[in-house]
Fold these 2 entries.
Entry 1:
Amino acid sequence: MDTTPLRVAIIGGGVSGLSLAYYLQKLGSKEAQQIDVTLFERKTTLGGNAETVWVDLGNRKQPGKPDSPYQRWADLGVNDVNLATYHRLHAVLSEIGELERMKPLENTESYFNRDGTIALTDDCDLACGVSDPAHELSKAEGGKLAPLIDVVHQSAIDLVESGRITPRYTVDDFFDSCVATPRDMLAAAADHLGITIDWQDPALSARLERIRRVIYYPRISAMYFADDRGPGGMPLQAPFEYYRIQEGGSPPDRRYFEHGSQHWLEALAAHITNPETQGPSVKILRGIDVEASLSPQGVRLSERAASEARHWEADLLIMATHAEDALPMLTFGDGLSDTQRGLQHILGKVRYTRSYSVCHTAAVHMPPNRNLWRTYNIEVRNPEDTFFPYRIDYVANRHQNDAENPAYNQAGLPQFFVSLVDDLNRIPRCEMLDRRPSPLNEPAALAAAAPREAGYRNRLPPLDSALETKAWTLFKHNVLDANCLEAQTEIERYNQTIAQRRCEGHLDVCPLLFVGGWTRGAGLQEQCLEQSEHLATLLMKGTEPSVR
């Protein structure tokens, strides 16, 4: 029996990299061969597209008490999950003691345009507050619109789950067919839901067109993986797989991370690096930007841009980064040129967009009618628009369900927002909130994080010091188009081939595998965990290869 440890290196400290380390540790404890895992993260903080900021909203006044700073937190990236469908996340959170920090959010939406001709609120989950019947989606068109939306939604979900469509079947294809032949497309879903539709209604096609233009296309454009060329050309499975996981379940169980999404990832990191945790050793090296040289004999990792670069050796490297960031970190040695060309072809299919996330107090992007303000505020674009950059605006007070939190609710509800925009100048600088140290007992890495390390801000040219300290970040997101879905299929085939050949003991195998949000579905946290568990399972089958 080989007692030499299998040295696994992971690059990327987001949910994919951390969960991969978790599953390698968990599954590796059952294997005969020892495994050592080292995770490298270029920043001092963990999280990837999860980032939490604390901000001051003023001084809180209470009778008989001195004034005190009123501080709140906001997630600029990943901000909520659905525990009804996030089964792996639920299990991990329970194991590491973070489940109790998952709090119910206020799940409400607003659809609006600037001139006020479109003003709808989805308040079916509004538990505490005021809903105006003039704008309630459930009452629109005499109550006919909402049940039709349910039928359209179920029909799309059924079509995606049937496996009868390819990534080239688009959102436009689906809605065009619904408008042209509504009964053919929707009758089965209506029967399944027990909803009666008048198929002879002369207004039915126009109503379906309204659902397309006012509800689904704006909502899809507000998904982080949206195509800025418009939602119509996206694969139908892209948004509806998202809907199924992020908003599905009977009923859904939408939760936010109390005190921010980075907390659970820091808790996961603490759990897997605890010497008392059963299973293989896991080390997490922060603030280290590495590159790697690959050969069939193994991996050599070197610190980049360091006066005295450090080096590490590994038997296997797993990239848990964005697709476009992976290959620039890698050098392929002799015998791996075919693998390099194949990976260039696969990863080259994944396209990225960038967006700024800003925490602020500006109402400029909110519905003009304040009675329409909801947790998720989605602006309906003009019909003539040809560019659809990722856009959504959150009322942080509603997202964190202040109505159920007396400490916040009794403070007077100063409104603050998180907006995803394509241009930082869309939010007035004077309304941007400043980053503040957390008033809580934060993990040291979060407390010491420099603003310049946030997201991909380091990729920007130097900014003035006043803007540097504001509560914003730069994110990038892969576009979930047909090419990306094809790349996911191809990288799965690649991972399986490499894992199988390692298991069989072949000596000419490239020591490189991939996880990450771009590799599975919409890259939701549950899908990242699913991919990590899957890859760890593949690897555990081959920890004791027989040499050929």
Note: The chain has 16 helices and 21 strands.
Entry 2:
Amino acid sequence: MNLPMNLLSWGIISLFGLLTWLLLGTKKVCITPTCLMLLTSAVLFTLPALWSPHDALPIALPRLIGIWGGVFVYLTLLQLPIREKETVTLFYLLAAAAVIECALSLAGFYCPQYLPFPLDSLAEKYAGYAPGIFQQLNVTASFLVTGLAALLYLLTDIRRSLYHPRAERVRFMMICVAIMMLTATLVLFHSRIGWIGGIMAMGCASILFAQARFRHRTTRWRRALIVLLPVLGGLLGTQILHQSVVASLLHEGSNQQRWLTLEYTLRMIRVHPWQGWGLGMFESAFQHFMSALPGDNPSREMMQHPHNETLFIWAEGGIVALAGGLCLLAGWVVLCRRRKNLWQWAALLTTLPILLHTQVEFPLYYSVAHFFAVLLLMAASEGNAPVVTLRPLLFRLPLVAVALYGIMLSSQLFYASIMLGNFETARLADPHQITRLHVPWLMQMRYQRDISLLQLANFNGSADVSELKKYAQSNAQWITLHMEEDAYNDQINILYFLKRRAEADKLKSEAHQLMPWDDRFNP
């Protein structure tokens, strides 16, 4: 929700859905077992909202809307025939997108001044840690691995060769160079999930083309290149990095915090296994759970997510949300068990790097591109699925209305996100412009937070204590759900300024228990 590119992507996806349902005509509406599983999971993910704390629901709301948007996208994709030719085109597009993202990432490392705004300022501010449009190393890495997997299948299948020998040599060399460039960049990222995903992509492609059914679609030389080219790219990356592979992938502090978070998330689940802690409550519940432990809080980092999607949905939504996650898994397994041709298998296996990433981080919350890629690849792998056909009158008009609303909502959110982003980075000539901004319901939490920050700015400019009190009141509510060090520090300093020393001391003690790594809260 904070990245305008995601909102723009949803607008384009909604436009695609609108055109599809308008042009569907009198055709039957097709629904597959996997689509029904996705629908069931969306219902199960939403049900815990009935018993979750009302104040925390706005945090979970974008995620729930995204899940239902995914059901809409998948149902729409099922109405379009995705044959082998279309799947191959999809793989070329994924590969091209990954190569472009790789080039942007490398530019961020070595020549950020040539990047467009805001990528240039981000690359300079977070040198080596804000690559490409995704602005996060591991999210970029899993996207590059998805493109790498697409390139491996395009390289290995000899039936994808071009008719003219010279054109085929050019295509072959471009794919080889792209594979080496992607793997070298993954080494530069120090991304363990990128490496694991790359090894998985190589293994899946090797196993698939080793099958007797598909062995005639390749040669021994091309099967050897599945492993040889990524290894050469990795060696090139280590030469550029001037560091061993093992050293580049060791993150001792990160390892300790990850294992700590997983352990205590499981303990939280044992406390409320059936009902969960509430949608949108993980950040607050986890930090308070850690601060209530006997002795000192062992956590040394703010955790908004346990870095495991399965534990996250179980901790927040309880057994009902976990059942939704199992429905998603069942939908993927249904696709896996169905007989498919080579490119349907390739499409399904190419989802694995991103799906694997969800078990160590939360890429689908950062990037609509990742989410849409997974849905596209799953739809392309449906194969000879048993289909339930329904009359279009039951679906067409409601889904056209949903698509139209999606376009309108995405446009409003995109504009609001640009304006609020400019305010938050002090690029608005008149900060009070945001008070005249129409912000849709889905972004109201962020908007109300910015309004309160404007009140703080007003106090700093006019010394009007009433503005400071307004900010303190809204900030007190904010820090009940958002464990932000700066917000706590602001509140403590304001309480001291207002001569409410007892409240300030109590809050400072609480902040020290919640965030022991921040020296500002030391007794």
Note: The chain has a mean pLDDT of 91.
